[in-house]
Amino acid sequence: MIRQATPSDHAGITSIAADVYQDLGDYGSILPSWFVHPGVQVYVDDQSSPEALRSFLLLGFFEPLSHLHQELIVDLLAIAVVPSCQRQGVGRGLLREAIALATKAAHGFSKADIRLTVSESNSVAQKLFSSEGFEILDPHHGTYDRGQRAIRMSRHLPTSLS
Question: Rounded CA gap, 161 and 83, in Å?
Fold first, then answer.
């Protein structure tokens, strides 16, 4: 079941991030500051049991400084699945939930996109994102803390005004 995270989930999310993202950087230290950011929503999937989280996602909702553009940008800041549950459709389900939440938020905007950044070495995730309509926006978006090249991907979202 995918649900909005509560503060009691934060330790589990941090633990998953520290494990899954260990090759990219110290996400166990980075994520707690995102939990309290007003534009960030955190979701978890605890289908295995409420006490044992198996995945999470963080979405950042941002409008441009100029409201004249009526554009919404949703950043998929993080998505992670514990290794024992990977390649079982958990990530795809979570990604589809992220797209659905972003699409719902896009109602009333003239343009909306959901974006994400993925490691160049993570071909499995890149294939997943591509299969769900994401396209490479920037193949050299920068590097992660531990030196891996970052790829920026984006997907347009339907809006009621487009």
Answer: 40
pTM: 0.89
The conformational region for residue 142 under phi > 0 = left, psi -120 to 50 = alpha, else beta, is left
Closest CA to 74 of 104, 44, 46: 104
Give me the tens of pLDDT residue by residue for the chain, a chain 162 residues long: 899 999 999 999 999 999 999 888 888 888 888 898 888 999 999 775 656 889 999 999 876 655 556 788 999 999 999 998 899 999 999 999 999 999 999 888 888 999 999 999 999 999 999 999 999 998 888 877 777 889 999 999 998 755
Smallest CA-to-CA distance from 146 within 119, 116, 122 is with 119
Token pair 């891996």: residue: 148
Neighbours of 17 (CB within 10 A): 24
Strands 135-143 vs 111-119: parallel, antiparallel or unpaired: unpaired
Q: What is the β-pairing status of strands 71-81 and 111-119?
A: parallel
Q: For 20-134, where are the E strands, in sequence order?
A: 40-45, 55-62, 71-81, 111-119
For residues 125 and 84, give the distance between their C-alpha atoms in angstroms, rounded to a whole number.
Answer: 16
